[in-house]
Every structure is written in C-alpha cells, then in structure tokens.
Amino acid sequence: MNAKRLESENRKLRQKNEELKQKNDELELINRAFLSINSSLELDRVLSTILEAIRSLFGVVGSSIWIKDPETDEVVCRQAAGFQRNIVKNWRLEPGEGIAGWVSSYGESVVLPDTREDMRHFREVADKMKVELRSIISVPMRVKGAVIGALQLVDKQVGRFDESHGTLLEALADASATAIENAQLFERANREIVERKRAQRKLKKNEKELKDKSTALKEVNTALNVLLKNREEDQVHMEDIIVANVKDLVVPFLEKLSHSKLDEKQATYVNIIQSNIANIVSPFLRQLPMKFFDLTPTEIQIADLVRKDKTTKEIAQILNASAKTIEAHRNRLRKKLGLTNQRIQLRDYLMTLV
Fold it and tell me: Are strands 110-112 and 75-82 parallel, antiparallel or unpaired?
C-alpha cells in the first residue's frame, strides 16, 4: 500500500516537474522575445526570431504574424515561420476573412480545435501549402489599445491548442506589437531623414541654378548696356553726319537760291525751307522735345524762331500765318513751359534751355 502511494506521489511530482519545466520554457521564450525586441529595430529580423521561438516551444507546424494595411484595411502576413512559410508570407486577407482577419477585425482571441467545424477558416492558404491544418489559435496584437493585427499558430493535429496556450500567446502578442511599433517608428524616422536629405539636396541644387541664372542675367545685362551705349554713340555719330551733310550739301544751295531772282511768294517758301532745315539740325530742337514731350511741331518751330529773336509779325510772315495765331501759340508755349504770371521774357527762358 505504501509502495502504491509512493508511486502515485512520484507521478504527481513528475507531472509537476513537467509543468514547471513547461512554465520555465514559456518564461524563457517570453524573455528571449523581449530581448530580441530590444536588440534590433529591423522588424523582419525581430519577428522571425519571435515566431521561430514560438514554433519550437509549441512544436507546431507553423506560426505567423498578420498586420493590418492602413490603406486597404486588408490583413497581410508580415512574417511566418515553419512549413511552407514563403507561401504564407505576404498573403493578403480581406477584412474579417479567415481566422487572422476575423481576430484583427473584432479584437478577440480564437482557439479553433478543428478547422472542419468552423466556417471562418480560410482554406485557400492550406490548399496552396498542400497540407490540411486542423487546429488554429490566433490572438490580437494591440498598440495603445488599438488592434493592429494577429499572432497565429497552426498545426495538423486536432485539438492541439487550449485556453492555457492563449495566455502565453497573448503575452507574446503584446511583445510582438511593441516590436512592430518600435520598428515602424524607426522606419518612419529613417524615411523622414532620407526625405529631408533629398529636400536639402534639391534646395542646394535650386540655389545653385538660381545663382547661375543670376550670374547669366548679370552678364546679359552688362552686354545689353554695352550694346545700348554703342547704339547711343552710333546715333549721335549718325546725327552729326546728317547735320554735316545738310550744312555742306543743302544749305549752300538754298543760300544761292535765296539770293536769286525770286518773287515774294517764292522767297517766302525758300525762307520757310531754310527755317525748317535749321530746326532739324538745331541742337536746341533736339534737346527741347526730350524735356517737354507735349510741345507740338508748330510750337517747337515757333519756339526756335522766338529764340532767334524773331517778332510775332516776322514769325507770322515766315509761317504764312496770322499774327493773332502766332500770339496764341506763344501764350500756349508760356503755359506749357510754366511761365504764366511770371516776369520773364519767353526768349530769355528759351535761351537757357540751349
């Protein structure tokens, strides 16, 4: 009787030792998972380490981590371990599709003893792997209370998982979610750094282009100033040539014509021609329009005759106009030149403009 009791006690001790060993293995797995999180910010490397450790501990066919895609709301297998892991990795499920999709959408853990008895099981993945998965356990992963995906184990054995597995898996899901958040923040920071460096390079390039364009514009402006100065010099030179030609080739003949036998009307015409030519070549008349743009050609002509000390009557005879008309032009000249109500002779003022 004592032997049987002793054997029973030994069985209980062995069972407790097995349970303690299992618990120690689980705690060691959790510890390794957290150490893995703190050792690297490369998401795929961290997740691979966690999943492989989970698969080895439970002795299951496969393990996987599914993450929500914020743009499409699909659930994507970010990393997998075990049999045919490359087929499972990057697989996409619609919101609520499959066990992983359902857990990610509703935020509740699922322990599925037999996939044949639950319509939520998505069989296409298993068919692609060419193996029938009979047991599944899937738990939500949360970051600051929000579900970001699911941590999932699969096996070919019916009834492989129970609620005790769920407790351990939920702790590992929290560790995995923390790893994902840290890695995503790290990746986002790296992207921002890359974008900032790219923007800085573009800014420097734009600054260089603007500087080059500014230099080119300065060179063009200098060239244009030189051309403008040359044009002004050419214009002055051309005016000098025209004046010289008029004085040498036209004026002498008009002088001869004025001393020939002309009747009064012909003499008047010759006098007007001489006056007009004098106006054209007069330096005074080239300066006056530049200062007073509102003078008419007749007013400019009269101003030149006044400057030459011609009287109103003489100007009227030269221009074949009435003295009253010439007097009106003189009054308008005084007004335009700002001489109204001023005690200054029109001729004296015009002489100051030469």
Answer: unpaired
